[in-house]
Amino acid sequence: MPGAARPTVAVIGAGAIGGVAAAALVDAGHRPTVCVRTPIDSLVVEAGGRSRTVPVDIVADPAAVAAADWVLVTVKAQDTAGAGPWLERLCGPDTVVVVLQNGIGHRRRVAPWVGPARVLPALVYVAAERVGPGRVAHHAGSKVVVPDDADGRSFADLLAGSVLDVVLEADLVTEEWRKLLSNVVANPITALTMRRLDVMRDPGIEPLGRRILDEAVAVGRAEGADIGPQDVDAIFERYRAYSAGAPSGSSMYYDRLAGRRLEYADLTGALVEAAGRHGIPVPFNEAVLALLAALDRGDPARRDAT
Fold first, then answer.
1. CB burial class (10 A; 0-12, 13-18, 19+) of residue 5?
2. E strand or H helix at 202, and its extent?
3. What's the pTM?
4. Does residue 201 sit in helix, strand or coil?
């Protein structure tokens, strides 16, 4: 309707995904409020060899915000509790909370803080990196997968005309596990080796990765996901394509590089937990989980970072 007010939108987090999401919202005609823990002067997003300052409102105090129509949660899954004060202020009965995080169980993860707001899980296929305070490099990827329902369609409308391509999916359980397959192999291997995705071409890495993923497929199928060996093959074909040029890293690789806490509990940890519920042995994933937990505990700076 001509003259209708634009919806109010808040983005919690100014990291890699938060920066890309905020820039996409601006391109779609909105002026989002970006909620940050540590104050920043501006938000700069680099993409396609160009840097631009994104016109957003930056707020560092939850007391300064009120209920919004849309709230995008872009902090890492392990930092969700830290977003709680923001969610409690931003969520009202008509709010839609879009959880743009890795892992599974998006609704359960934010449930303690959203009250009557509706929750929309979102699977993000974007390679981006926080390169400094308020500075984000968008390397590749633009797909965001959401449920094919009324809120999902409204979210697609919200971002229409932006770099982000919102894809509607009827079977989100299957899509969540397809995304988790990629995350439980690329994230741990890149973080443990401190190599970008070119490491997936090293001798011995693909066989190891396939064993990790064969276990994950068995668990995902037990959880109701329609996945199989073809999904494992597709993942390694994609890795080979990524490695052909300047290789990207994974989110866990970037976190280790920056000395931040690692996201293993909501990726490999979630897989191992689900395997336990179904009585499925996952020795390779258990070994990876133990290594990541030991790595995270062994660095006090990383352990205490938020």
1. exposed
2. none
3. 0.89
4. helix
Question: Alpha-carbon distance 248 to 87, whole Å?
Answer: 32
Instruction: Tell me the C-alpha distance between 54 and 44, whole Å.
Output: 6
| Mean per-residue pLDDT, 114-129 | 95
Q: Which CATH class is domain 173-304?
A: mainly alpha
Strand, coil or helix: 116? coil
What local confidence, expressed as pLDDT, does residue 303 receive? 42
For the record, the structure tokens of 292 come out as: 């990541």
> Tokens in use for 259?
């000395």
Summarize pLDDT for 158-200 with one digit per residue, the tens: 999 999 999 999 999 999 999 999 999 999 999 999 998 889 8
Q: What architecture is the 9-169 domain classified under in CATH?
A: 3-Layer(aba) Sandwich (3.40)
- Report the distance separating Cα 24 and Cα 14, nearest Å: 13
The highest-confidence range among 29-33, 123-127, 297-301, by mean pLDDT, is: 29-33
Tokens 């390679």 correspond to: 127
Instruction: Take residue 71 and report the two structure tokens written for it.
Output: 């709230």
Whole-number pLDDT of residue 304: 40
Backbone angles phi, psi at 174, to 5 degrees: -60, -45
Between CA 23 and CA 296 the distance in angstroms is 31
Q: Where are the domains of the chain?
A: 9-169, 173-304
Taking the C-alpha atoms of residue 306 and residue 304, their distance in angstroms, rounded to an integer, is 7
Is 179 part of the annotated catalytic residue set? yes
Q: Which of 179, 256, 260, 261 is catalytic?
A: 179
